Amino acid sequence: MNRQTTPIRRALLGATLGLSLLLGGCASVYLVDNQVQSFARWGSTANAPAAPQSYRFERLPSQREGDAAASQGTLEDLARAALARLGWNLADPADTTPWTVQVSGGALKLPRAPWEDPWDGFGAGWGLYGGSGGWGSTLFMRMDIPYYERQVSLVVRQAATGQVVYETSARHDGRWNNSPELWSAMLDAALRDFPNPPSGARQVNIVVPR
What one-character DSSP code corresponds to residue 55? Predict the structure, then answer.
């Protein structure tokens, strides 16, 4: 049999190699696409505070007890790192600060993506097959793949008056499992263009190493 590589075979081999390299390169990172909306009420652009600034975290009563308090502490640690990258630093507990920051986050786990039909191949179902013996039916099984809807928000207030001067949120939907890197990416997205964000909703994509 002639094993000489034909032009078509060479093209297929090249395409396969290119796809393998692409998948190999993408395997080290993943994209966190966020829908972000921010509101600034500093009084005017000129009054937006220049870094560095100091602040303290503020918690709601529901964020102060039990498992919620532990989760809130983890989220605040990630928010502290994100704010530090912008020149905002957490003050010592005894220090007076001009700002307070309230951060919150939540996730909803769905059994499948919203656009997926729960009856389309999920669980047991019947499918037709054809062969030399004619047409028949066979039983197949497909597992659900969870889908997550996540959101984080940050609110900055004047410590002296309690007035809200900055509000921002980021929403991300997808199949990625829960991880600190994912929440950190969402916080970075929510704080994009801080302290003078553009008006209206926008998409902010963050590339995260695996």
Answer: E
